[in-house]
Design brief:
mainly beta; 3 domains; six-stranded mixed sheet; 6 helices; five-stranded antiparallel sheet; single chain
Length: about 425
């Protein structure tokens, strides 16, 4: 066991390589420096809230937090960029986007206390005294050393909504392709009563995602119909989603006593190791409801007054016992891997033990996770380009009763404008 843990620890520490030029050009939320860990986003102190603030609500703030594994403070800066609906960088200037100067120093930091792994916790809150947002839409925050802006440490997506339109929707298991089986279907109505749009068939764009996943996001460019101020999207094949299953849960809030989902806790210098209980496929089991965080995590330490600086790091070992999939790779899904289907989230199969396994260095907390299967026939480059939807059926199963969170964002580009405004955002839930 010690030999296995040592091997997996090395894998956990090497999985996040420094950013390549290609990685630095993308706009996905993620970490590019291996010393950075535990990227979080909260709105008004709520870490389970989606990363969205309201443009006309001056009391709302968004805080980005992260750790750097070090004994010494680093002098960091951040910049923020406006993005279009597809998260490509907008072709507009800083003066159009901000009131203030778009280059800030990261001055809010604190050293870890009484932890085996030493780190410094940093946080950035926006808007602030340095600048305010002028425009709604998608935004990207990038963090880098003050003396080297090309050395990207991390980046975070967030949104500023105008709340100018009302969004109503329904999620049903009575879909156009099956009835109370393995899918869920959305029907949406956008009410333009407070914000008339001349041509909703061409000027509106509606983006829908399930549980904040990146691989199955849907963009609707044309509604089914428009009557008066009501723009309707219904009986749309793209709005049928595999229902999946509830997220699995585990807690590493203690280093001396196994928490939820933990089999054993071991120490092999320099890290504690949380070995999780053996997972098995759930597709053949009856559906069982569980209240989850829809893939999110909360930093927690059992005795900590301030988990941000008092929670420690441990190597968490995930093991899934099943026969190998012949046409797909298995990935860990959830905010613990920032929803990426890449080497950091891909499980490795051990034919001798008959298990998939993965080891990740994680901060103590309460985590959600789930297993996804992504077809392995295509090259990695093709996967990145096309982002094919991963399958829940292979491991977790698809159950119509599953409580899923659907994010709906409505964008508008007026004739002659050079950017996409975010007119409204809402969350819809199935099974409620």
């Amino acid at each position: 066991m010690v030999k296995l843990l040592s091997r997996l620890t090395v894998a956990a520490l090497c999985c996040l390589a420094p950013a390549t030029a290609t990685a630095a050009e993308n706009t996905l939320t993620g970490i590019f420096n291996p010393s950075c860990r535990t990227l979080t986003v909260e709105v008004n102190g709520d870490r389970l809230a989606p990363p969205v603030i309201t443009a006309d609500n001056t009391s709302e703030t968004l805080t980005v937090g992260f750790d750097i594994l070090s004994d010494e403070r680093e002098y960091l800066r951040y910049s923020i960029y406006h993005c279009d609906a597809d998260w490509s960088l907008s072709n507009i200037t800083d003066n159009e986007v901000f009131d203030g100067f778009n280059l800030g120093d990261v001055t809010d930091y604190a050293f870890s206390r009484a932890t085996g792994v030493h780190y410094i916790h940093y946080s950035i809150t926006v808007p602030n005294d340095e600048f305010q947002f002028r425009l709604s839409g998608n935004y990207l925050m990038r963090v880098f050393p003050e003396d080297n802006p090309d050395d990207l440490y991390l980046q975070v997506r967030f949104m500023v909504s105008e709340s100018a339109v009302a969004i109503r929707g329904d999620v049903t298991s009575r879909t156009d392709i099956d009835y109370n089986a393995g899918n869920q279907q959305l029907a949406l109505t956008v009410d333009l009563n407070r914000y008339p749009v001349r041509d909703p068939f061409n000027d509106l764009r509606v983006v829908v995602s399930q549980n904040n996943r990146l691989d199955n996001t849907v963009t609707l460019s044309h509604p089914t119909r428009a009557t008066g101020t009501q723009v309707v999207y219904e009986h749309v094949p793209a709005l049928i989603f595999p229902a999946g299953n509830e997220y699995r849960r585990m807690e590493t809030v203690q280093l001396t006593y196994p928490g939820m989902g933990v089999e054993t806790i071991d120490y092999h210098a320099p890290y504690y190791h949380h070995v999780l209980k053996l997972d098995e496929p759930r597709y053949s089991r009856p559906y069982s409801y569980d209240s989850t965080q829809h893939g999110r995590f909360l930093v927690r330490e059992y005795n900590a007054a301030d988990p941000d600086t008092e929670a420690d790091y441990s190597v968490v070992h995930f093991t899934l016992k099943m026969l190998p999939l012949l046409d797909a790779d298995v990935y860990l899904d959830g905010d613990l891997t920032y929803r990426h289907l890449d080497d950091n989230s891909r499980m490795t199969y051990d034919p001798e033990a008959g298990v998939y396994h993965k080891a990740l260095l994680l901060k103590q907390g309460a985590y959600n996770y789930r297993y996804l299967a992504l077809p392995s026939s295509a090259s990695r480059e093709a996967k990145r380009a096309s982002q094919p939807a991963a399958r829940t059926a292979d491991v977790e199963g698809d159950f119509y009763q599953t409580v899923n969170e659907y994010e709906v964002a409505v964008y508008y580009r007026a004739p002659g404008e050079r950017y996409d405004r975010l007119l409204g955002y809402t969350l819809l839930f199935s099974g409620r």
